[in-house]
Amino acid sequence: MQSKYKIRLLRANLFAAAVVLALWTPAAPPLAALVLWLSVGWLFITALLLDFSHRRARGLPWQMLAGGLLLCLVAAAPERHSMLIWVFAAVCMLPQKPIAIAFNASAALFSWIMIAPFLSRPEWLLLLSSLTILGLLAVSRTRQLIDINGAIQQRLRLIPGLNLWAGEQLLRDLAREQIRSEREAIYAEIIVIHVKRHQLWASAQKLCELTYDFENVYRLNGTTLVLLLLSRSPKEGAQRRELICSALPEKLLYHHSPLMDVELSTLTLETLHTLPAQTLGSTP
């Protein structure tokens, strides 16, 4: 998977950029050197923590930090760091929220204003027009990547080989399982589990390991999982629920309800997410 998505190459590029900035610091003014070392540290930490996963969709606007560091570098020594203004075109190519795009575009504009006094009129006009064209091309590319990423997130099976599904599939499965439970006298239970964002994928994988192949786990959002549990009786269902929940991280919140008590005609993913929850380990 790493070779396919070239994570090693991306990590190497980040390290290389950090080394280049580090070599640039000895002759820099004190303020510029401080910002350079902050940038070096950020690049090194990002490279070390980099871990691509097709299961994750990080929504935090970290791209604003990259734009902010670039703006600070240009502001610290515009005559020395003027070439860094071209990096804003690369930053705008990163998939990001509209607020991050607006921030980085504003940072690029302010950087151009600070560099303009050191250029002749034709030069700063050419710089502005070139940055505008590159920025528009970058934003159009960004929108394409966001659309692709959104399509990936809406896949039904989220992890190949595991019974982890998107929330949209849950609404399709509940009606079928409700009919089957009534026909075959099977006790079915729906369990809504609230986890911390960083615990989501580990908890989802653990749930898939603790359930049978014919039972599914669903991801509603970045902090909510749903388990459709099938048992021979309510007593067995309660035992299995306690066993499964005890294997998950502590201090989780969950809600459980017999599937036959669920009113499917009014059920939505939003109502599932807002069901009253109890602390893991407390009595129902």
Written description of the protein model:
The chain has 10 helices and 6 strands, in the order H-H-H-H-H-H-E-H-E-H-E-E-H-E-H-E. It is α+β, with helices and mostly antiparallel strands. It has a 6-stranded mixed sheet, sandwiched between helices. Strand 3 and strand 4 form a beta hairpin.
Number of strands: 6
Counted by DSSP, the helix tally is: 10
- Give the overall pLDDT as a whole number: 78
Order of helices and strands: HHHHHHEHEHEEHEHE
Q: Describe the biggest sheet?
A: 6 strands, mixed
What topology, given as strand order, has the largest sheet?
1-3-4-2-5-6
Termini separation comes to 42 Å
Overall body shape: elongated
> Could you list the spans in which at least 5 consecutive residues all have pLDDT below 50?
1-5, 52-59, 278-284
Q: Work out the helicity level.
A: 40-55%
Radius of gyration: 25 Å
Structural class: alpha+beta
Q: Proportion of β residues?
A: 5-15%
Q: Helices, strands, pairings?
A:
Blueprint: H1 7-24, H2 30-49, H3 63-76, H4 87-92, H5 98-115, H6 121-153, E1 164-166, H7 167-184, E2 187-194, H8 200-210, E3 216-221, E4 224-231, H9 234-246, E5 253-258, H10 269-273, E6 278-279
Parallel strand pairs: 1-3
Antiparallel strand pairs: 2-4, 2-5, 3-4, 5-6
Helix pairs in contact: 1-2, 2-3, 3-5, 5-6
